[in-house]
Design goal:
The chain is α/β, with parallel strands linked by helices. It has 2 domains: 158 residues, Periplasmic binding protein-like II (D-Maltodextrin-Binding Protein, domain 2), CATH 3.40.190; 92 residues, Periplasmic binding protein-like II (D-Maltodextrin-Binding Protein, domain 2, 3-Layer(aba) Sandwich). α2 packs antiparallel against α10 and α3 crosses α9. It is built from 11 helices and 13 strands. It is globular, with a radius of gyration of 22 Å.
Length: 300
C-alpha cells in the first residue's frame, strides 16, 4: 500500500513540475517582440555599408534598454531594423540624448534619427522629414502625468496653472505643447535631457507634472506616478511619428519613404506596437491576446 501511495505521490509531483515549468504569456514579455524581429528576417552580416541611426533609449515603448540583455529594444528599433533590411545596409544604433539625436543628423554623424519624433515647423526647416509612421496612441495623445496624491490638481479642462512646475523633454513635441497651452496659463516649464530623469524629478516633488506621449506615460506609471485626466489639444500635423534626415540626403529620404510605405501596406505597425507594449510591461500578453510563444490569438 505504501508503495502505491509513493508511486502516486511521485506522479503528482512530476505532473506539478511539468505544469510549473510551462511559461505563461506574462512570463515571456519579449516573446512577441522577438517574433516580430524574426519576421523581419534581418541579418546584419549580409551587408557592408552602414546605416547609423541616432536613438534616445529613454522612451518606452518606443525605445528603451533591456538591461538583462544589455540591448536597446522597442518599436523604433524594429522600424530601424526593417529600414536597414529594405535599404540593404548594416544597422548601427547610436544611443544618445534626444537633442543629440537631432544634432547628430544635422552634423552628418548619423544617417537617420528615429526616436519618437513628431513633425514640427522648426524641424521641417532644419531636416528632411520622412512620411509618417503610426505607433499606436504614442503621438496621437499627449498627456500630463503626475503623482497619485496630486492627481486632482490636473483635471480635464483645467485653465489655471499658476505656480505649477511642468516638466518636458528638451526639444520635444511636449515642450512645444507646454509652452503653447500651459505656460500661457501660468505654468513654469522645466526642461530635462532624459525622460527617466524627469520622472524621478516628478516622483521626488521637484516638478508637479510631466508632459509625455500617452504610451510613454503608461510605461512610466507606477504606484507613485499616475496618468492625469489632463490631455493636450494636438493638431493633426503633430500626430504620428517621422524619421529625421540631413538636408543633403534626398536620395536616402526617397528610399526611407518607400520602405515606410511597404511597412504600412503590410500592416506591421499595430503588431509591432503591441509587442513593445508587452515588452515594456505596459500591457500584458493576455490583455492584448498573445500566447506564450508570442503569437496573436485569433478566433476561429
Amino acid at each position: 500500500m505504501k508503495k502505491i501511495i509513493s508511486l502516486i505521490l511521485v506522479a503528482v509531483l512530476a505532473l506539478f513540475a511539468l505544469c510549473s515549468c510551462k511559461k505563461t504569456s506574462e512570463d515571456t514579455p519579449s516573446a512577441a517582440y522577438d517574433k516580430a524581429m524574426q519576421a523581419i528576417g534581418y541579418n546584419a552580416d549580409d551587408y557592408t555599408e552602414t546605416l547609423t541611426v541616432a536613438i534616445s533609449p529613454d522612451f518606452a515603448p518606443m525605445e528603451f534598454y533591456d538591461t538583462a540583455k544589455d540591448t536597446i529594444v522597442g518599436f523604433d528599433v524594429l522600424l530601424a531594423t526593417f529600414l536597414a533590411k529594405e535599404l540593404g545596409m548594416k544597422l548601427v544604433l547610436d544611443p544618445m540624448s534626444f537633442d543629440a539625436c537631432m544634432a547628430a543628423v544635422s552634423s552628418g554623424n548619423a544617417d537617420l534619427a528615429i526616436s519618437g519624433f513628431s513633425w514640427t515647423a522648426d524641424r521641417a526647416e532644419t531636416f528632411l522629414i520622412s512620411d509618417y509612421y503610426v505607433a499606436g496612441e504614442n503621438e496621437t495623445e499627449q498627456i500630463l502625468i503626475t503623482t497619485a496624491d496630486n492627481k486632482d490638481t490636473f483635471t480635464a479642462g483645467k485653465t489655471d496653472f499658476s505656480g505649477l512646475k511642468i516638466g518636458a523633454q528638451g526639444g520635444s513635441l511636449q515642450e512645444l505643447l507646454v509652452k503653447e497651452q500651459l505656460v500661457t496659463k501660468g505654468a513654469t516649464l522645466e526642461l530635462f535631457d532624459n525622460i527617466n530623469t524627469a520622472a524621478t524629478a516628478l516622483a521626488t516633488g521637484d516638478i508637479d507634472a510631466l508632459a509625455v506621449a500617452y504610451g510613454n506615460g503608461e510605461a512610466l506609471a507606477n504606484d507613485t506616478i499616475v496618468l492625469s485626466d489632463y490631455y493636450f489639444e494636438v493638431d493633426e500635423k503633430y500626430k504620428n511619428n517621422v524619421v529625421l534626415l540631413n538636408k543633403e540626403d534626398a536620395e536616402l529620404l526617397e528610399a526611407v519613404n518607400t520602405a515606410l510605405a511597404k511597412a504600412m501596406d503590410a500592416n506591421l505597425y499595430d503588431p509591432w506596437y503591441e509587442a513593445c507594449q508587452i515588452y515594456a510591461e505596459v500591457k500584458t500578453a493576455d490583455e492584448l491576446g498573445y500566447d506564450d510563444e508570442g503569437n496573436k490569438i485569433t478566433e476561429e
